[in-house]
UniProtKB/TrEMBL annotation:
Keywords: ATP-binding, Nucleotide-binding, Transport. Coiled coil: none annotated. Residues 4-234 form the ABC transporter domain. The chain holds residues 1 to 238 of 367 of the full protein. One of its GO terms (molecular function) is ABC-type transporter activity. This is SN-glycerol-3-phosphate transport ATP-binding protein ugpC. The keyword Ion transport does not apply.
Length: 238
């Protein structure tokens, strides 16, 4: 089970109150999008889900497990960052295998998972290259491959398309959604882009200044915005 439940999450950095009692529920297998303007707390929320930051108050459940105080490696989560975060001194193959080796996965199992991920993402011809010899889109696919070989139940995406040009962005957006459907995973995807949010989401969360202003199916929110902010941000008809 990879449903996500976040209750009453608060996070402060010094005097800055970044998340103000955020609650979010994502059903198992859903593609959830957190959308909101720059600085509203999207990345912070994702980092809390991943265990890269600690909550001041509130709880995070994955399935029925309370993971609020667990280390990232104990959470069964894969995160795809904006900046890809590939190891520059390792080949694509080594980048894909790195996390599995750390976890002492047997070599035959590593080969099998790398084969599957390469096939899904078309990485075969790239396996012996170094990250610097890849395009932005190719790096993004490797970053996704790394998440896939982990067999994570929950995928977290932080603005994964923001470093790509417009044509590629549309393509990778479709690829990400296909991958999600094929893996049967649960995804939480962060973006400030309304079009991306509307086209990808099964369930949408509109964030503003550390508060979830509205949650639900994207078309319903678009048609029936509950606040002025939501209406303006999504460009809902008046
Ligand atoms: P978003 O991803 O929606 O653009 P962030 O979650 O990155 O927003 O940031 C929300 C707010 O929290 C911003 O005001 C940012 O400056 C602040 N913030 C984020 N991380 C830190 C940090 N490690 N230390 C201090 N302030 C931070
Ligand atoms: Mg961010």
């Amino acid at each position: 089970m990879a449903s996500v439940k976040v209750t009453g999450l608060n996070k402060r950095f010094g005097d800055t109150h970044v998340l103000k009692g955020v609650s979010v529920e994502v059903p198992d297998g859903a593609f959830a999008v957190l959308v909101g303007p720059s600085g509203c707390g999207k990345s912070t929320l994702l980092r809390l889900l991943a265990g890269l930051e600690e909550a001041d108050e509130g709880h995070i459940f994955l399935g029925d497990r309370d993971v609020t105080r667990l280390e990232p490696r104990e959470r069964d989560i894969a995160m795809v960052f904006q900046s890809y975060a590939l190891y520059p001194h390792l080949t694509v193959r080594e980048n894909l295998a790195f996390g599995l080796k750390l976890r002492k996965t047997p070599a035959a199992e590593i080969d099998k998972r790398l084969g599957e991920a390469s096939e899904m993402l078309g990485l075969g011809p790239l396996l012996d290259r170094y990250p610097k010899a890849l395009s932005g889109g190719q790096r993004q696919r490797v970053a996704m491959g790394r998440a896939i070989v982990r067999r994570a139940q929950l995928f977290l995406f932080d603005e994964p398309l923001s470093n790509l040009d417009a044509a590629l962005r549309a393509q990778v957006r479709v690829d990400i959604r296909k991958l999600h459907d094929r893996l049967g995973a649960t995804s939480v995807y962060v973006t400030h882009d309304q079009v991306e949010a509307m086209t990808l989401a099964d369930v949408l969360f509109v964030l503003n200044k550390g508060v979830v202003e509205q949650a639900g199916p994207p078309l319903e929110i678009y048609a029936h915005p509950r606040t002025k902010f939501v209406a303006g941000f999504l460009g809902s008809p008046a």
